[in-house]
Amino acid sequence: MFELSTGMIRGLGTVVVFVAFIGLTLWVFNGKRGPEFAEARLLPFADEPQPDITEEPVTRSTRP
User: Fold this and answer.
1) What is each CA distance from 19 to 27, 48, 59, in whole angstroms?
2) Alpha carbon distance 8, 18 (integer Å)
């Protein structure tokens, strides 16, 4: 058998992280996930009250 040195463990850790990075990148930029990410992009605004569009907007005159 072979002995795992500190350098070998660090190298294997680097390979694992690199593979995870490539996998995550492919997952994020996959075209099938576009609508899912578009919906998630609007989540911070989900709790804001929606404006009532039935009322006329109030306008102010700029004339003295």
Assistant:
1) 12, 39, 57
2) 15
pLDDT digits (tens, 9 = 90+) for 27-38: 988 888 888 888
Measured distance CA(16)–CA(31) in Å, rounded: 25
- Main-chain phi, psi angles of 9, to 5 degrees: -65, -40
Tokens of 47: 């709790």
Contact 38, 32 (CB under 8 A): no
What span, in angstroms and rounded, lies between the C-alpha atoms of 27 and 8?
29
Could you state, in order of their start, the residue ranges of all structural domains in the chain?
12-42
